[in-house]
Amino acid sequence: MAARGFLVASLLLSCLAVTCYGVTFSSLQRTLLVTASPTPGQVLKAGEDQKITVTWSLNQTFPAGIDSTYKMVKVKLCYAPISQVDRAWRKTVDNLVKDKTCQFKVVAKPYSPSNNSFTWTLERDVPSATYFVRAYAYNSEDVAAGYGQTTDAHKTTNLFEIQAISGRHASLDIASVCFSAFSVLSLGGFFFMEKRKAARVSK
Questions:
Q1: I need a labelling partner for 27 at 20 to 30 A (CA). Which of 62, 107, 138, 172 fits?
Q2: What is the CATH number of the domain that holds 113?
Q3: Is the overall model pTM greater than 0.85, yes or no?
Q4: CA–CA separation, 159 vs 50, rounded Å?
């Protein structure tokens, strides 16, 4: 009876540890096959309606049932090592709770072992950097249970670049000019009305 109680307590502590501290990336198996449409070295520009198509499926070389706990897949855009140098806010940490490698959500979908695809339009706030795509499989407790990525284990192959929006846009300039003109006219109208009011009082 005591042994059974100890086992239950151990299981509870293990679950609590996973919930509070997360799992480590090194403990996950690469059970998903992931591909993305950008070619190696391709440069994409954020904010110009450019798209990335991502596909993923179960790696069939693993034993049947390896995905029995998978409930959800979350696909993310991740920084390559070259874009993490001297940037602590992008740092890779083995503990997934603290890891900053993959900061941009592409999509989250219920898990299916095959025929998964999603086309994502690059968001305007994606910074200039070198990237790859990674997909995590999550269990019913929303804990990572497997993964796959478009690059190798060292994150040096099949990388692509994204250039952030730079410079000023005509639409912003026009809006700025209109707002400034409206402000000047409003201020002039205010002083004119105040002057007329003061002239009436003086009479």
A1: 107
A2: 2.60.40.2550
A3: no
A4: 17
